[in-house]
Amino acid sequence: MSVQIVLLTHERELDRASNTGQLALRAFPELCRRVIWSRTRPEAALLAMLESGQASLLFPAESEACAAPAPASRLAAGRDPWAAEPATQAAETCEPDTIVILDATWQEARKMLRQSPYLRTAARRSLTQPQASRFTQRRNQIPGGLCTLECIIALFDAANLKAEAARLSDDFARWEQAARG
Question: Model-level pTM?
Answer without folding.
Answer: 0.78
